[in-house]
């Protein structure tokens, strides 16, 4: 646990005030309030967090079912913030994905909780470098962003044999968007376009609006696809970020797709992978979580029955029956709540399940080719200019952001 700042003087008060605006939520606080930044420990639940902080447990039990479901979305290892007056918890901000967080707040002698949007800003960067060690190490060293390195490698996995083809001195360039929260990297980067020069040949990969990677001619390069995990009647609730202004109304995020289907309908693994969890998980009831390749994870909730052989550590093939549809946990009727996570962040399953087109066509292709051409030029310019020295991570100068990464010597 790290205490960012205890502030009791007027100077700190001023800085702190700005800080709260950055957060956008922590509105009221005492002059002796302390803000803490902590990591959500493995196994910690909202209930144990309440217990630890002397928040009456009925605060949890009285939550709406949908909010309890969201409480199960807290990702262990993620950074959360708490505000204390001496030892009394005033507020807490606990992320449930890259866009939403749970806001726990004290109101009189009671506590409340709401899911609210996370305040962040994003910025586009262009980098280029020559390979000196390995693609992964070089990108991570330059940017301090291992997610960027693995996403880049992902983009070329199917078309480049890294061990055989990539040599010292080969060049690459990446155009990507990064989110920041409180001056630090936040969530995963979004690579828009990149090039890798191997064997005197530039390979380009462009991300289309559908989230998939394509080559310059509009051929889909995405190799890994998940399948729909059951035969369903209809989608009863879609994935939603719930980004609605808090003043206009409270809309909760829904971090998965709900498939309505009769009880006992077989549920099948959406892809090859390893079972991470099989058991009861709070509001989700009987739940299975499977870890797949490429940072994907799927979650199947409200199951009636989990197959006997599906246990933590079991390797499963795509399409293997893992259990049946039910309405365990907090559920109004039989359905499968299906969650999909990319690098720990909940994403819309439908987008990743859709049978991806192998090739773009018609108008869509036309507009893709135009933007691909622009990206190609920008990437070539970046390669020529050699932006190795152009470190993309600037320190945010706002008095209270104290670090960007562990070794930020060369981040200036
Ligand atoms: Zn659901």
Automatic annotation (TrEMBL):
Subcellular location: Cell envelope
M23ase beta-sheet core domain sequence ranges: 253-349
SUPFAM superfamilies: Duplicated hybrid motif (SSF51261)
Keyword Protease: yes
Domain Csd3 N-terminal: 38-118
InterPro entries tied to this protein: Cell_wall_metabolism_enzyme, Csd3_N, Csd3_N2, Dup_hybrid_motif, M23ase_b-sheet_dom
Coarse class of the protein's main subcellular location: other
Csd3-like second N-terminal domain sequence ranges: 128-240
Requisite cofactors: Zn(2+)
Keywords of the record: Hydrolase, Metal-binding, Metalloprotease, Protease, Zinc
A matching Pfam family: Csd3_N
Name of the protein: Peptidoglycan DD-metalloendopeptidase family protein
């Amino acid at each position: 646990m790290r205490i960012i700042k205890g502030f009791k003087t007027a100077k700190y008060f001023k800085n702190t005030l700005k800080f709260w605006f950055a957060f956008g939520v922590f509105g009221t606080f005492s002059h002796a309030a302390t803000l803490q930044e902590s990591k959500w420990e493995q196994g910690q639940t909202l209930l144990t967090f309440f217990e630890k902080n002397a928040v009456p447990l009925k605060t949890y039990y009285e939550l709406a079912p949908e909010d309890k479901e969201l409480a199960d979305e807290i990702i262990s290892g993620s950074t959360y913030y708490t505000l204390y007056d001496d030892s009394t918890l005033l507020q807490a901000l606990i992320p449930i994905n890259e866009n939403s967080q749970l806001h726990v707040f004290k109101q009189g002698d009671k506590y409340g909780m709401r899911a609210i949007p996370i305040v962040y800003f994003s910025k586009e960067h262009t980098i280029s470098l020559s390979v000196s060690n390995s693609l992964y190490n070089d990108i991570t060293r330059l940017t301090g962003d291992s997610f960027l390195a693995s996403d880049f490698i992902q983009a070329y996995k199917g078309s480049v044999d890294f061990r055989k083809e990539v040599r010292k001195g080969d060049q690459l360039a990446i155009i990507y968007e990064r989110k920041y929260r409180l001056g630090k990297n936040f969530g995963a980067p979004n690579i828009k376009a990149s090039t890798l020069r191997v064997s005197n040949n530039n390979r380009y990969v462009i991300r289309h609006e559908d989230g998939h990677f394509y080559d310059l001619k509009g051929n889909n390069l995405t190799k890994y696809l998940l399948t729909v995990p059951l035969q369903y009647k209809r989608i009863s609730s879609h994935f939603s970020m719930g980004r609605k202004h808090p003043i206009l109304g409270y809309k909760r995020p829904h971090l998965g797709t709900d498939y309505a289907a009769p009880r006992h309908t077989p549920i099948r693994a959406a892809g090859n992978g390893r079972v991470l969890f099989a058991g009861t998980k709070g509001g989700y009831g009987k739940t299975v979580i499977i870890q797949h390749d490429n940072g994907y994870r799927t979650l199947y909730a409200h199951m009636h029955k989990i197959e006997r052989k599906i246990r933590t550590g079991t390797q499963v093939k795509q399409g293997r029956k893992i259990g049946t549809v039910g309405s365990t946990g907090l559920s109004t009727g039989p359905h499968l709540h299906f969650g999909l996570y990319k690098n720990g962040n909940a994403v819309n399953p439908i987008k990743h399940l859709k049978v991806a087109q192998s090739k773009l066509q018609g108008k869509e292709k036309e507009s893709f080719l135009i933007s691909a051409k622009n990206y190609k030029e920008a990437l070539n310019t970046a390669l020529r200019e050699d932006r190795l020295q152009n470190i993309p991570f600037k320190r945010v100068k706002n008095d209270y952001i104290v670090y960007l990464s562990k070794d930020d010597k060369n981040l200036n």
